[in-house]
Amino acid sequence: MLKHTFCHIPGFGAGTERSLWQAGLHGWDDIFNQPNLPLSSKKEATLHSHIRESIAQLQAGNGDYFYGLLPSDQQWRLFPAFRDQVAYFDIETTGLGDPSDYITTIVLYDGRQVRSYVSGQNLGDFARDIADYRLLVSYNGKTFDAPFVRRCLGAPLDQPHIDLRYVLGSLGYRGGLKGCEQQLGIPRQGLEDIDGSFAILLWHDYQRGNAKALDTLLAYNALDVINLEILMVLAYNAKLAKTPLGLEHHLPLPTSPSLPFAADQDTIQRLRSQHGWSSY
Fold it and tell me: Which end of the chain, C or N, has fewer beta carbons within 10 A?
């Protein structure tokens, strides 16, 4: 999609970009093959200059360049170009951000491997591992996850970051991560009754000695992260459908890996009973 993008060029808004598309100029290559562009000479010079720079920056793998120039509601366009360097991530915590709250678990998924991090075990490794990726994808991560990680682990998380809360919201899907999954038909694999508040109960149960509670928490955390890839592809295709570029640029849905952790239904049912937890 980046090679078909013009709205990152100074002075070229969405209207100008759409006019170029409608004139048959669907990508960067078309610009150099068209002798008479529907632009003033000054805008044409700006276009040529920035397209050459864009080609160089994309070849260099510099997502920061495009992230800084794209309007915030168009940053989803980064995804295909950096998909092989993306980290989907999600954290679980003991609360919503009080000074005493801390991260309990983190799961990171790059489309190939699921990695987990647990407080008191290997949580500090996340800061090192996440730095290897050039694009971050989360749900509500800009508001919740990233600030927590910066405060608790000192990781800058300064890579380009696509927050699906806003991308999906712009498409009419709201109600939190679980709500978006439900609206889009993405199954929760027996973890339908668990949310962030229940995740806190699982953590405390683990601290009391129930190892299966940690496995259940990690299963929940991992499922959230694995589903982010599906949501990202669905959102990307839905956004792309609003452009005149055609179905040939749509991405196929990914094949999700098996969950590397097994949720313990006995633990879930016991905690639900103890705390008066109702099904959704």
Answer: C
